[in-house]
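Good morning,

Attaching, inline, the backbone tokens for the sequence recovery test we're adding to the shared suite. The designed sequence is right after.
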């Protein structure tokens, strides 16, 4: 009789944690949901966790990330690939994902979305609306003035940089990096 406590990844390829990072409006959610569908994988969004915590009256700081770290580990331990959608604006928010993958014995792929055309980035930000009830999307001014620490691989680890100008091209590049057809 098979051991019901044995994890699927103990006998197959390691599961993957794919974390999307980038400033708001650079295509993280669009690409993360597309990758989650293509794999298929569990999809976790820090905005959803933070919005739910705010609904309970909490002042949210790092709590949303902590909740999603634990949900990611739980799903990875079940043998599911996990896609995370989170800005990860500072080194501390990026570091938590390495710890989560170590606990789950998973592989980590960090994907940083970039939108080099500032006019296009601003257009996307100004034309979008919240897709989570109660979630407030940041304004262009809030994004420009928000904290963002540039990525340094020696500190933050390797990542796949993706120009999200054309979502279909960006998605193909990510799936190629994951070796998914």
């Amino acid at each position: 009789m098979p051991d019901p406590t044995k994890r699927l990844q103990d006998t197959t390829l390691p599961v993957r944690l794919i974390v999307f990072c980038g400033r708001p409006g650079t295509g993280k959610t669009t690409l993360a949901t597309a990758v989650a569908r293509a794999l298929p994988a569990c999809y976790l969004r820090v905005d959803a966790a933070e919005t739910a915590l705010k609904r309970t009256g909490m002042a949210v700081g790092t709590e949303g990330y902590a909740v999603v770290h634990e949900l990611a580990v739980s799903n990875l331990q079940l043998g599911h690939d996990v896609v995370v959608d989170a800005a990860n604006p500072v080194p501390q928010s990026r570091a938590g994902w390495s710890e989560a993958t170590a606990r789950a014995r998973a592989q980590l792929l960090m994907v940083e979305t970039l939108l080099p055309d500032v006019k296009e980035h601003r257009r996307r930000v100004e034309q979008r609306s919240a897709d989570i009830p109660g979630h407030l999307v940041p304004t262009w001014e809030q994004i420009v003035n928000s904290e963002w620490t540039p990525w340094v691989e020696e500190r933050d680890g390797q990542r796949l940089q993706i120009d999200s100008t054309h979502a279909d091209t960006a998605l193909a590049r990510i799936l190629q990096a994951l070796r998914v057809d």
